[in-house]
Amino acid sequence: MFNSFTESLSALVLKAAKKNKRIQFAIFFAIVFPVILIAAFAYIETYQDLTEFTLSRRQSIAHLAANALEQRFERLTDIGISLATRVRFRQLVGEGRWDDAIDILKDVQTDFPFIDRLFLADPAGTLMADTPALPGVKGKSFAFRDWFRGVSKNWQPYISEVYQRAAEPRFNVVAVAVPIKAEEKRIVGILILQVQLNGLVGWSQSIEVGPAGFLYFVDRNGRLATHPKLPSHGEIVDYSSVPVVQKVLRAKTGVEINFNPLANEEQVAAYAPVPGIGWGVIATESTRTAFAQRNKNLQQLLIRYGVIFLISCILAYVILRAFTGLKQAEEKIQKLHKDLQNRAIELEAANKELEAFSYSVSHDLRAPLRSIDGFSQALLEDYPDKLDDQGKDYLKRVCASTQHMAALIDDLLNLSRVSRREIRMQTVNLSAMAQTIAAELQESQPERRVEFIIAEGLVANGDEGLIRAALQNLLANAWKFTGKRSETKIQFGINQQNGKSAYFVRDNGAGFDMTYAKKLFGAFQRLHGHNDFPGTGIGLATVQRIIRRHGGKVWAEGAVEKGATFYFTLSI
Amino acid sequence: MGDKIILLVEDNANDEALTRRALRKNNIQNKVVVARDGAEALDYFFGSAACAGAEPRVMPTVILLDLKLPKIDGLEVLRRLRADERTKLLPVVILTSSKEEQDLINGYRLGANSYMRKPVDFGQFSEAVRELGLYWLVLNEPAPRTGVP
């Protein structure tokens, strides 16, 4: 039972879904698509913003680091110049008193700890004195060094490329060479400040490029000046073939994502040239860590929009369900409506048929009755001498039967008319109606002494014609069944029955056995013999039909030979 | 009174016999012309001498018209009689078994002069016919018309 119900239900849903698939899809799309669109836009925007932020931050770091390095070199150069231009110092160098001259510089290292060594060379590049002094270098020519070539070109202060110092341990160093000039700009020597690169850019270690990012510096040849992951002594690594190094050495600033073959992964590389000295700074980090935060944010964004998407899907589903439900309900209503219309049409057809039938009954059934009665009469009248008394009695019975049959037909027609007739509601004065009917009854049998007790002022809503027919039937019944009483009392009034007002017609006539109370209102049901009380047995059926059409109820109480009371209500 | 014709439009031979008997019983000797259906009735007035035993165009004094008739029903016959100048004013009494409200209303609306329901009881029927004959053949003063001497 339940299974078949669910089956038919799902079949119905499927049918509805098939019919409205396009509409349903459109609704679903209309709800879900904006969410997808917003999510996509938000994702793209966030992606771009965070990427931009990550890249520009590294770009700024590279730029700042380049500026910081430039300032360091400027400061070194300033120190060199201020030392080289001391009058006493210049004199000592000019007089060739190298050891005395270097003595003056002994304390410089204390003040500037990142200066590794200071030494003096003659204008030909031969080392003449140094501090702290290293054995075996004095008198050696260092003209091959870059610093000499650089400073001797124009006799201007010069910052060398990166090189390994001669003495062990062979740190990577850089030299600031400043010419020492005597009177009339005569070059008398060269002051060299040798700087350990680690000391020079130590600060760069504390700049946070990223969780796994770092800065490195290259000199103007693209050789690695300092790299936090590589030792600051030993062989100098040549990075000149690295693309970003090549770019920065062409004085270009930028940031890019490229493949690092050494680490075998993508990396973010921001680069900035160090102005004035032609070096470069590169801030680099694996994309994996550089974009970790961005990816984390994006992931959270995706999760959030996933939840929103899910909710919108559920919402769409709920709406669709409601829609389908509505649609189904609508279809159901339409179907019911159609059924109802069909029923109405059928009913109307049935009514028409019934009317035609009634017409035929009233016309065609009566015609033969008329003949039977008429010709029986004719026999009685035209051949009285040929019929004995019994024959005449028989013919009279034939006539009486035809009368009864005619009455039956009329009552039946009445009953069917009562059912078919359209109800026209109006206010009906029941008391006045009862009075009129009572008067008519009295007039039909003036010899009878009947006391009518009719309550005043009873008014109800109903179809006047039908209610008159009902009241007529009830009062005529009372009249008929009191026919054998010498003192007759017929009452019409209203009283309370089971908490409801009910009209009643009461008589003190023959009454009836309550056992058969229910049979009273059936058509052709009679509780009395025809000889006692003639009738067709249709009157009360007609009454019941009229009362029911008024939304009321009719019932009876009584006892044999103790009268009967008929109650009825009118609820509309 | 003897030259006045009654046109009885009745398809039931028994009813015809009973009507004739009732007329005879009540000493109404007028000629009764019977039309068996609506078409025959209309033929009497507008057709080419279709009704045997009657001179065409002798207008009846009263028409006793049943409603339920073969071919053309009584109401249609009445409608056509009233639509024609020659028969417009003829007294028509509907004599039928039907007591349907619709028939009554339509009968009067179409211009019936009287409506009588045939009682089943012959005594009542006979009385009704007697009164009918007395009223329409004796008391009633018909509208002046051509074709009546």
Q: Which descriptors would you attach to this protein?
A:
heterodimer; A: 572 residues; alpha+beta; Beta-Lactamase; Heat Shock Protein 90; 6-stranded antiparallel sheet; 5-stranded antiparallel sheet; B: 149 residues; alpha/beta; Rossmann fold; 5 helices
Order of helices and strands of chain B: EHEHEHEHEH
> Which structural category fits the helices and strands of chain A?
alpha+beta
Looking at this structure, what is the CATH superfamily of chain B? Response regulator
Percent in helix of chain B = 25-40%
Would you kindly provide a written description of the structure presented here, covering whatever features stand out?
The complex is a heterodimer of chains A (572) and B (149). Chain A is α+β, with helices and mostly antiparallel strands and 572 residues long. Chain A contains 14 helices and 18 strands. In chain A, strand 7 and strand 8 form a beta hairpin. In chain A, helix 3 packs antiparallel against helix 4 and helix 13 packs antiparallel against helix 14. With 149 residues, chain B is of the alpha/beta class. Helix content of chain B is 40%, strand content 15%. A 5-stranded parallel beta sheet of chain B has the order 2-1-3-4-5, with helices on both faces. In chain B, helix 2 packs parallel to helix 3. Chain B is globular.
Question: Would you summarize the structure shown here?
Answer:
The complex is a heterodimer of chains A (572) and B (149). Chain A has helices spanning 2-19, 21-84, 87-94, 98-104, 108-111, 146-154, 197-200, 243-249, 287-290, 292-382, 389-420, 430-444, 464-481, 539-549; strands at 115-121, 127-131, 158-159, 163-164, 172-181, 187-196, 214-218, 224-226, 254-260, 265-274, 279-286, 425-429, 450-454, 459-463, 488-497, 500-507, 554-558, 564-568.
